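The methods section describes the discrete structure representation at length, but only in general terms. An entry of this sort, consisting of the sequence and the corresponding backbone structure tokens, reads as follows.
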Amino acid sequence: MQMPFAVTAILAFILVLGPLVVLHELGHYLAGRMFGVRADAFSVGFGKELWGRTDKRGTRWKLSAIPLGGYVQFAGDMNATGQSDPALEGAARADLKGTFPGARLWQRAVIVFAGPFTNFLIAVAIFAAFAMAYGIRVTPPVIGGFAPQSAAQAAGLQLGDRIVAIDGDPVNDFTEIARKVLLYPGKTITVAAQRNGQTITLPVTLASHTEKDGFGGAATKGMLGIASVRPELRPVGLGKALAVGVGDSVTAIKMTAIGLGQIITGDRSTKEMGGPIKIAQYSGQTMSLGWAAMVLFAATISINLAFINLLPIPVLDGGHLAMYAAEAVRRKPLGARSQEWAFRAGLAFVLALVLFVTFNDLASLPVFGS
């Protein structure tokens, strides 16, 4: 008997996000232990504790009611956001031993950075494992066909042309073409191609086809309107596979950063932002396609977790790192009042963002008539 899609989506959401959250927080926890910083709590989820146990080191390991992340609360933290306890301000170094505020500045930075970096390493490992298992797809950047109303064909490109550069950036594989055009609908780009031993340069205005995701949402993408020639799979060794893993992960981060920048500048609609409901929907869809699709989707989510957590917003890891940078410049930490207002503003921003993307998700559901 087939499960309803809503049940599949919730299950897949837990299977995808749960391990990524645990590993992210383990990155913080293990880095803290490396520097002798005690952890008071390790929580998967926020809010009310549903289950927990305390280990011999005094760390409370628990599952909490709101499954939208997690946290490690180190000794000396006032709350789950990592805000230092103001009662420890000005305390002697001996009294701060084993606490997070008592760690050296660079150690605190490493502990905070370890979470997002763990998510990055997860993505690298997944992409590298797939490269080792299946080989890498090699597709020469040669035009093997055109879509109806192709922007490339209208600009004068022909079958058999080998695209060698886009806007001056070299192109070595067909997959690189998509990365250079998908985020720029309607933009006029310069395409350099080889034809009969000569290099031609043509301006091409990318088409905009808005693709629906099957859940009521849509994303606008730039399209050249070309098809590739037949690809081939090439086996690779461990070194090459790791290089592929790092390269694919860095590319994913760049694409995420560009997309966010376009939303901030207004070049891309805020309706394309998704939240927990959309992640659950995509998780359920990829689960139905098999474990391989689901694991690759987990790699993408892991990259997004790393990127989002490194944004310089108080309460996020990037906000903490920004404060440590300010502390390094000032040669003393920000005052307790300044930190409190920064954390309040950051928390308000994050909560507003969560509400906004959740509203986006709900508005796209068919039940609301989207």
About this structure: The longest strand covers residues 39-54. The chain has a mean pLDDT of 85.
